[in-house]
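Priority: low. Protein: DUF6362 domain-containing protein. Input follows.
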Amino acid sequence: MDRLINELADRYREAWLTSHRIPAGIRLGYTAFWPEMNYDKREQIRRAEREVLSIRVTPEDVDRMLECSRWLMELVEEDRKLIWLRASGLTWRDIAEHTGIPRTSVHRYWHRALLRIVINQGQRQQI
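Result:
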């Protein structure tokens, strides 16, 4: 069962990364009147470290992300939020501060939420 939970956690991490790689592509026609910035070498290196890899998203990646999103719809909002926060790479301590759940309980609640998804998928496959 722990193997299934770990695989599911990896799927949600992949879904989170995919959701952040999808280009917005929406241009509303607004213009910025700020001057163009000329960064020095040190600032360019820092900006490059912060940028997410711009690997193209494949349709299969999007399908897997949407499948994970559908699974989340079966859970209550608190569980959805907990799974998505952990998929974003936050530590348990940061998640506890963000949600207000005691730090010692965050992992247990996250595990329980993923277990619900595994059980729901298992019941659906039996039908």
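The chain has a mean pLDDT of 82. Residues 1-19+59-127 form one domain.
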